[in-house]
């Protein structure tokens, strides 16, 4: 799979080495597997869960050979990944009764939030959808400027009141524009300052409230963007953001630059949130709709 070579090389080659010369899954193989999963940033809790399930199968079936281990491991990991069934994303289709479909994007600076929004706008547009973006991350001039730049690049309108503007007022005008235009998708960028948790929480609820003045059930998607190459930091951010707001979708970026794609598995399992998108490069087309079976297969290719 394009962009995931580093991750797959890593997991696959390590697993290959762990089982080399062994015909049977024994404690030593399981110990090595545990280490591989932990060093791939799957996270300790999820790793323990996987190992326990495999131990149970080995105990039940008495003799599990190392080829079967590969198959069992895939099945267990697919089972741990949350399924995203709200939207048929196979071709960027959106629910018909949610128009515009409102996406609120959260995440700390530097994780690839603006890039992900630009890529999403491009792909929705390519699928024939009309898109409006809102620059409600008003604490950084760069965030506002970059979103405007992305809007120009992918040719979609961006609602902006500049830096330091009230984020809720930007969100209000963005959703209003989306409704007025009859747009299919509205994507609102928001600030992600974790050091002021109470402020963040208040701000996000305020943004949600103004969106609901137009659309009762907006935002339909609260998308948390995480940098897949930051391992434990991504876990910490997921923990903090899920405390501040409900999160119902994840975008995990920079998986092209890391051998630690295991973070996708751990975070989806720990927080019970589906991964919807993965970022595999800096180009506008380097965003993939996440498919758990394909992802797991790519890890073992
Ligand atoms: P923001 O501060 O969260 O809005 O982050 P940006 O969108 O500005 O992205 C920060 C940097 O990460 C930029 O240089 C992006 O080009 C880069 N980036 C974003 N997503 C990806 C990705 O999936 N792969 C790679 N290699 N780089 C990415």
From TrEMBL:
Binding site for GTP: 107-114, 189-193, 253-256
GO biological process, one term: SRP-dependent cotranslational protein targeting to membrane
InterPro entries for the chain: AAA+_ATPase, P-loop_NTPase, Signal_recog_particl_SRP54_hlx, SR_rcpt_FtsY, SRP/SRP_N, SRP54_GTPase_dom, SRP54_N_sf
UniProt subcellular location: Cell inner membrane; Cytoplasm; Cell membrane
Top-level taxon in the UniProt lineage: Bacteria
Assembly mode: Part of the signal recognition particle protein translocation system, which is composed of SRP and FtsY.
Residues covered by the SRP54-type proteins GTP-binding domain: 274-287
Catalysed reactions, semicolon-separated: GTP + H2O = GDP + phosphate + H(+)
Organism annotation: Echinicola vietnamensis (strain DSM 17526 / LMG 23754 / KMM 6221)
Any Pfam family matching the protein: SRP54_N
Classification via SMART domains: AAA, SRP54, SRP54_N
Protein name: Signal recognition particle receptor FtsY
Name of the gene: ftsY
Membrane spanning residue stretches: none
Main location (coarse class): membrane
Record bears the keyword Hydrolase: yes
Function recorded in the entry: Involved in targeting and insertion of nascent membrane proteins into the cytoplasmic membrane. Acts as a receptor for the complex formed by the signal recognition particle (SRP) and the ribosome-nascent chain (RNC).
Family: Belongs to the GTP-binding SRP family. FtsY subfamily.
GO molecular function (one): signal recognition particle binding
Membrane topology reported for the UniProt record: Peripheral membrane protein
GO cellular component: cytoplasm; plasma membrane
Enzyme Commission (EC) number: 3.6.5.4
